[in-house]
Structure formats: C-alpha cells, structure tokens
Design goal:
heterodimer; A: 405 residues; mainly alpha; MetI-like fold; 2 domains; 72% helix; 0% strand; B: alpha/beta; six-stranded mixed β-sheet; 37% helix; globular
Chain lengths: 405, 260
C-alpha cells in the first residue's frame, strides 16, 4: 500500500560570520590568496581616500560656497522662495508617504529626503543665519504632509492635481510676479543656478513623458504622415548628442519663433532641448514596451468591443509602461546627470558651480587647489539623488510584479 | 490519392425553419499568396451549437476569427445578426459587442483583477454603472464556479480557472453568439473537464455557439452539427452521430481515426 512520506524538518542552516567567511572568501588556497591580495589593495585605496577626505582635504571652499552650490546668484533675501517650493514638494511627498504607509515606495523616498532636509536643517540652525528658520520649516512641512496623509488617506485622489498645480505654481514662485523690488519681485532666470537649476531642468522629463508616449504610438500609426513624422523626429533627435541640441536650441529656437535671441531666456531654450531630447529616447523605450504586449491582448480587447483608442489606453499602454519602468528610470537618472551639459549655453548648474568655485581666487590660494574636494562633494550629491531613483525603481518593479504574470 | 473535394463546394447550411444569426456566403481569404479559406458557405441558426473540427492549418480558427473581424476577408459576405461585416468600423464594433470570443491562450488582461477584467467592457462599451457591472460579473463568475477568485489577478489562477474567467468575461457582455477558438487546447488534461462542463451548460441553456475544438466528447454531447475542414475548405458536414458512425469522406475518416 502507498504510504506518503512524512515531512521532515529542514536541516539546520549553519550561519554566522565565521562560516560565511570560510565559505565565501577562504574556501580554497587560491581563493584565500585572492582574498588577501584584493583585501590589501582595497584597504590601501580606502585608507588613502580616508586620509584625503579627513586629513589632507581643505573643505573650506566647499563649505564657504554652499549658497552658490544651492542656488547660485538667486538673491539671498529671496531664498525663502525656492525653499517654499521645496517645502511644498516635501509636503506633497509627505502626504503620499502618509497614504502609502510604512515600507511603501513613497514612504521610503520621503524618509530619505527628510533625512537630507533634516541634516540641512541642523546645519542651517547652527551655521547659516539666512535660512536658519527656513530649512526647519521645510522639514516641518514634510511631517505635516505625512500626518495629513495618514489621517486622511482620501487626499490621495487630489495629489496628482496638487503636484501638477505645484509644478506650475512653483515656477511662478521662483520667477516672481512683480518687476522692480520687494519680496515678490521677478528674479530673471539667468540668476537661477546651482542645484536649483539642475532640479528645474530635470523636471523636463515630466513633459517628455507624454510626448514620448505620443511619439511611440505615432510611430505605430497607420497614417503615413504621422508615422513618418514620428520616425523622423525620433531618429534625428537621437542621431546627435544632447550637447549639440542644446547649442542648436539656443541659436535655432529664437529663429524659428522669429524673436530676438535675448528675449528667450537661455533656461527656456535649454529646457525645450532637454524635453524634446528626452522625449525621443522615451519614445523608443515605450515602443519596446508596446512590442512586448502580446497580440492576443489587443484581440481580446477588440473582441469585447473596445475601440482602438480604448484598447491602447486601457490594455496596451498600462502593460507596456509597466514593462519599461526600469528603462524609464534609467533614462531619468541619465537625464539628471546630463543636465550638467547646459554650461554650453551659458547656464550655471550644480556642476558648473563646482567648476567656478574651484577657480575662485580664494580656491587658488589653497595649496594644490580644491578641484578634487569640490568635485567629490558634487559627486556625492549627484549620487544621492541618482541612487534614490534607482532604489525607488527597484521597489516599484517588485510591487508591480505582484499578480502580474 | 485524389483530392475528394477538388472543385466541390460543400455548403454547411443551417437547417431550414430556424432564425439565421450568422450567414457566410462565398467567403475567400488569403494570407499574402496563401489561399487560407476557399469558397466557404455556412450559416448558423439561433441556439445552434456548431463544432468545427479539422487538422491544424485547415483554416478553422481563421474562419471563426473572420466572424468578429479579427481577420479581414477579401471575398464574400459575412452577416452577423443582420449586420454585414465591411470596412465600416461602426458595423464591426456593433458585431463585436454581440459576439463573445474565447481564445486558446485565454488572453485575460494580466494587469487587471478578475473582476476588472470582466467589468471593463460592460462599463466602457455598454456604459453600465460600475455597481451594476460588478453585480452581473459576480453572477457569471458564480455560474462558471469561481466567485471566490474575483479579486485575484489572472496570474494567480490555474489555466482552467483563467479560461472560465474568460468565458464569464464574454458572457457578461450579453452576447448573442459565442465563438470558442480551441478553448481547451492550452489546458492541462485534468482541468479540461471543468471548462467543458461550463460550455456544455451554456449550450444546454440555448446559447448560439461556434466551437473550434478537438473535444469529440463535447461535440457528441451538445453539438447540433459538426463541420470538418481541411485545406481551407469545408469537407463534410453532419450530425455528431453521422461523424462517429459513418463519415462519408475518406479524409474525414483518416482524420477521425487519428483523434478518436
């Protein structure tokens, strides 16, 4: 007679650092040699780096130019405006995090950024009188948003609109409303710079998203005029480097719009170039996703009586976009760093500030210069934001993977 | 060996007296240069269950895919519930609203829950209220025996359950005709029965069905007519008994001897 085998407990895993070391690093003589050699090289490099960072480096110039790194020439008495924009963003992110709850993508992102804001608040309170109150207020705005989101999860419905409104309103706040003097005076965009400018230019990815989706769909269109326009646009834009498009935009855009070159702010020209450039790449990413959706999905939707448009919007695009989230985030990370190319049209973004700081007279007085210090600082900041995006993307993929396939 | 039906057109006409819901006259279709459907004449009465059998590549799937215009035909007329299928998009949409289709690969929407899969078209196409659509959806989910799966995603269900959801999805639209394109071919043998049970019940309730399948047990139990196709043509038409006891054409016999 058949007798089922009774379940047995799994073997007790052997754990602990010693076991791990023996298994992974010292499993054989050759592995041991490899471990020792690599370990020595890494330790040597880390020691020298630490020696530089903590002993030899002169961080004075980085520390003294924090305002330049942050906002460049934005008037010091108007710093409350960019920080108000930041406060609004942290408020909205906090609300999303509050709704999402512990462990959600938004909560993880929120607490990472709150950590940064918290650090800046401490520094502001201790050392930076002009923003002594402002940075802590950004921190508070974030927590207020978080508590609101926790208390009233229904605000989630209004959040997309709030973000869109804040995107527009934020630009108005940065720019100002009245010419002349006073707290609401216009700050011409040539005075925007530093990390503020980097972030503003990075938002070019937002309009590039719908544009890219439209181009990708247009490329698959049956109407030849639309199809070939989209193909031409995508291929031409992708065919030349961003730095060239920035250059062309600064010369060509005024020509196309038939206005005086100086009446179009450089930032706007750069913004258009970045958005269109990003849209072309976005289109190709999205097209990859469109091709990954099986034909049967379209057939099932059409067989149910859904129109071609409904099929695209409700069935094809949601699946296509899900499939290309990693590619889109990769593109966002790339674009975030590529904004540093705007120096070619005379803009002073975060990266360009580093360059300027390193050639200040005071910097040149430092023996050996401060280039390394300045660029290390800039690299760490870029890394923080780029890595944050990467983490969020991985978590998003995992969440969307649930239940799909 | 000679081709028994060369030059011969076999008509699969519905018995007289019934109310015609599908009429296909002189249908021809090519994929590029390949003549995939050749002079098809077929009609179906309301409430009939027509089973189409034949070797793979015989055009049987293409034929039923022409009925809701997932494939375009080049020659002939197809009339479904009084509407002729032409390039007129509105006519096509109208026909698609009245014909449900069940696919071999289920084709559920993986990013939507079972309930959302079912209510999507009723809400977007029929403009039902969400609550109304969900109520109807639950009715049909009970009917196919899996109401408890309503809030899961398709990927969490077995193949048999997915196919039953697909049937419920079509039924919720209230179609006049159901087209089944090899609904059990992609299923594990042990779950084929649960899908066939649903189809048998549907047939007994009087649904008009056109079923492409190799399940001869199903044909025997509820089929009114069996159509045997080969090389893009209708070779033989008859009752299930006719096919099981005394098929006329040698090709039919050869095919049946392989699958029975």
């Amino acid at each position: 007679m058949f007798v089922p085998i009774a379940p047995r407990p799994a073997p007790v895993p052997t754990r602990g650092p010693v076991v791990w070391l023996r298994k992974n690093l010292f499993s054989s003589p050759s592995n041991t040699v490899l471990t020792i050699v690599t370990g020595t090289v890494v330790a040597f490099a880390l020691y020298n780096l630490a020696l530089f960072v903590f002993v030899d480096a002169s961080w004075g110039q980085v520390w003294a130019n924090m305002k330049l790194f942050g906002v460049y020439r934005y008037p010091a008495d108007l710093l409350w405006r960019p920080l108000a924009v930041a406060a609004g963003m942290m408020f909205l992110l906090g609300a999303m995090a509050g709704v999402g709850g512990r462990g959600s993508i938004t909560a993880n992102a929120f607490f990472a950024f709150q950590g940064l804001v918290g650090l800046l608040s401490v520094l502001a309170v201790l050392f930076w009188p002009s923003v002594r109150v402002l940075w802590p207020m950004v921190l508070v705005a974030g927590f207020v948003g978080f508590l609101l989101g926790r208390a009233r999860p229904r605000v989630v419905r209004a959040l997309p609109w709030a973000w869109a409104a804040w995107f527009v309103l934020g630009l108005v706040v940065l720019y100002g409303v009245v010419p002349g003097t006073g707290p609401l005076r216009v700050v011409p965009s040539r005075d925007w710079g530093g990390f503020l400018l980097t972030l503003v230019l990075f938002t070019g990815i937002i309009p590039s998203f719908p544009l890219g989706v439209a181009l990708a769909l247009g490329r698959t269109s049956r109407l030849p005029a639309i199809k070939y326009f989209c193909i031409a646009f995508i291929e031409i834009v992708r065919g030349a480097p961003l730095i060239m498009w920035l250059f062309i935009a600064s010369l060509l855009l005024p020509l196309i719009l038939n206005v005086d070159a100086n009446s179009l702010p450089a930032i706007m020209r750069a913004y258009v170039a970045i958005t269109l450039f990003s849209a072309a790449y976005m289109a190709e990413n999205v097209r990859g996703g469109l091709q990954a959706v099986p034909r049967g999905q379209v057939e099932a939707a059409r067989a149910l009586g859904l129109s071609a448009w409904q099929t695209t919007m409700l069935i094809v695009l949601p699946q296509a976009l899900r499939a290309v989230i990693p590619a889109i985030v990769g593109q966002a990370i790339g674009l975030f760093k590529d904004t540093s190319l705007v120096f070619i049209v005379g803009l002073v973004d975060f990266f360009r500030v580093a360059d300027l700081v390193s050639v200040q007279p005071q910097s040149l007085l430092v023996t050996g210069g401060v280039k390394l210090e300045v660029f290390l600082f800039v690299a760490v900041i870029y890394f923080f934001f780029a890595y944050r995006m990467s983490v969020a993307s991985r978590q998003l993929e995992r969440q969307l993977g649930v239940g799909v396939r | 060996m000679t081709q028994a039906t060369t030059g011969t057109v076999v008509r699969a006409d519905a018995p007289p007296g019934g109310e015609r819901i599908i009429e296909i006259e002189g249908l021809n279709k090519w994929f590029g240069d390949f003549h995939v459907l050749r002079d098809i004449y077929m009609s179906v009465n309301k409430g009939e269950v027509v089973v189409i059998i034949g070797p793979s590549g015989s055009g049987k799937s293409t034929l039923i895919r022409c009925i809701n215009r997932l494939e375009e035909h080049q020659e002939g007329r197809i009339v479904v519930d009084g509407i002729e299928l032409t390039d007129d998009v509105r006519a096509i949409d109208k026909v698609r609203r009245e014909t449900g289709m069940v696919f071999q690969q289920f084709n559920l929407f993986p990013h939507l829950t079972v309930l959302e899969n079912i209510t999507l078209a009723p809400i977007r196409v029929r403009r039902w209220k969400k609550s109304e659509a969900e109520e109807r959806a639950m009715f049909f989910l009970e009917k196919v025996g899996i109401p408890e799966q309503a809030h899961k995603y398709p990927g969490q269900l077995s193949g048999g359950q997915q196919q039953r959801v697909a049937i419920a999805r079509s039924l919720t639209m209230g179609p006049k005709v159901m087209l089944f394109d090899e609904p059990t071919s992609a299923l594990d043998p042990e779950v084929i029965g649960e899908v066939l049970d649903v189809m048998v019940q549907l047939a007994k309730e009087g649904m008009t069905m056109i079923v492409v399948t190799h399940e001869m047990g199903f044909a025997r139990e509820v089929g009114d007519r069996v159509v045997f196709m080969d090389a893009g043509q209708i070779v033989e038409v008859g009752t299930p008994e006719h096919f099981f006891q005394n098929p006329r054409e040698p090709r039919t016999r050869a095919f049946l001897s392989k699958i029975l």
